[in-house]
Amino acid sequence: MTGFVLKQGALYAEDIPLADVAARFGTPCYVYSLKLLREAFAAYRDALAGRDALVCYAVKANSNLAILNVFARMGAGLDIVSGGELARVMAAGGDAGKVVFSGVGKSRDEMRAALEAGIYCFNVESAAELERLNEVAGGVGKRAPIAFRVNPNVDPKTHPYISTGLKSSKFGVPYDQALALYRRARSLPHLEIHGIDCHIGSQLLDPAPAAEAAEKLLALVDALAAEGIVLQHIDIGGGKGITYRDEQAPDAADYLAPTLEVLAGRKEKLLLEPGRSLVGNAGLLLTRVEFLKHGEEKNFAVVDAAMNDLARPALYDAWHEIQPVVPRNLEPETYDIVGPVCESGDFLGHGRRLDLQEGDLLAVMSAGAYGMAMSSNYNTRPRAAEVIVDGTQAHLVRRRETVPELFGLETPLP
Ligand code: LLP
Question: 341 with 304: CB under 8 angstroms?
Fold first, then answer.
């Protein structure tokens, strides 16, 4: 049994009917397949076999401790963007020595925590950050390992909100300033130059932009070597896309092939920071139909999951497949699948042809990445439970929040 499949007229997570998961843990509920998580990581590992490489899972895509632990046990490194993510990694049994720290706004406290944990590398995103990091490292008596996140100005051909490698983006340092910044870094006493990094965007379906970015990084690596600045690693970031609908998403091997060709014969260690492609298709959001509303112009299926659980449709107009857990398919009608939140933008899917009745379960597919991780408590809605299915076993890896927990940190005025 692989992943999420229809078996005997019902949708299963591995060997468990999703209806059983809903009965046991309630809805809305994120359900992940351990097998699919492991397969996704193994695809990268296999594509990189025989190379000195470290796959650093981008924690932001799904930061549940159990998921971090699954990848850490398989040998993954981790790409973090906050002190909070560092704490999660440590709590999940991750190895700080395999952590890279990205992000444009690292605070002094976050820098200190990462130095004390002994992370592998800071991906520095500005000249100002470089100076701050040098100062903080001096303060704790350490040398901070650094790479610059360089902006290679490559068009990743994806959604503008998730393109990060263009000149106009807030991320990384400008390509033309990179050499000068490395020279500056060399002159600072509490830094140790380690590598170079880029991340050009997310949900990339074409492997060419990543290879083009790698080529641009190599030109810098060689120019630096000529000045005696020798880098030990090249981090090409994350970004490989997945299939949500009918996109032709390359597998890890096909996606990496052109980049690996560009890097052939290079001695530098290769780092990657995939997020979505490790968890996206390995998770779904299980939800129940509360009401069917047959309006004058539209039909609505009001479900118990909402934009606070899965923000991607509302935020990016992202398309997620929505499948009935026990399909009927006799008299499909066209529905907008909407949540209970008080916003017109609160939808999970528009215009879906489904044969529904009140109480039916639906599975919102490919929700493993940037689903739970971007959830909120808007409308004072407790966040969903999270379950990992392993064959015939279902493990609750995050229990549903309770309502009192949602305002437990608040205090009325005296
Ligand atoms: N490395 C860095 C520095 C990043 O900023 C990101 C994602 C990744 C790696 C992982 O990229 P991935 O392999 O997942 O494409 N919330 C959006 C996606 C935002 C991506 C942010 N950065 C979405 O739901 O589509």
Answer: no
Q: Is 149 helix (H, G, I), strand (E, B) or coil?
A: strand
Plot region of 395 (φ>0 → left; ψ -120 to 50 → alpha; else → beta): beta
Per-residue pLDDT for 153 more than 90?
no
Query: 42 CA to middle of ligand 1, Å?
Result: 20
341 Cβ neighbours under 8 A, 6+ residues apart = 306, 307, 308, 378, 379, 381
- Expressed in angstroms and rounded, the spacing between residue 237 Cα and the centre of ligand 1 is 9
CA distances to 98, 126, 210 from 272, rounded to whole Å, are 12, 21, 11
CATH number of 4-32+280-406: 2.40.37.10
Beta bridge partners of 235: 197, 271
CA of 240 to the centre of ligand 1 (A): 9
Question: CA 78, CA 134: separation in Å to the nearest integer?
Answer: 23
Q: Which amino acid is at 329?
A: N
Q: Can you tell me whether residue 95 is helix, strand or coil?
A: coil
pTM over 0.85: yes
CB 396, CB 385: distance < 8 Å: yes
* Residue to mutate, 60, 203, 247, 271, ligand 1, most ligand atoms under 8 Å from C-beta: 60
Please, which pLDDT band fits residue 321 given cuts at 50, 70 and 90?
A: very high
Compute the distance between CA of residue 387 and CA of residue 396 in angstroms, rounded to an integer.
4
Query: In whole angstroms, how far apart are CA 314 and each of 29, 129, 302, 407?
Result: 19, 33, 15, 25
- Domain spans of the chain? 4-32+280-406, 34-277
Contact residues of ligand 1, CB 6 A cut-off: 58, 61, 79, 102, 162, 199, 202-203, 237-240, 273-277, 312, 316, 370
Taking domain 34-277, whether its CATH number is 3.40.50.10230 is answered by no
Distance CA 18, CA 286 (A): 8
Packing angle of the helix pair 65-73, 34-47 (nearest 10 deg): 40
As given in the structure block, the two tokens for residue 358 are 């009140």
Give pLDDT tens digits for 90-130: 999 999 999 999 999 999 999 999 999 999 999 999 999 99
Q: Going along 97-177, which residue ranges are E strands?
A: 99-101, 121-124, 144-151, 173-174
Nearest CA to ligand 1 atom 24: 370
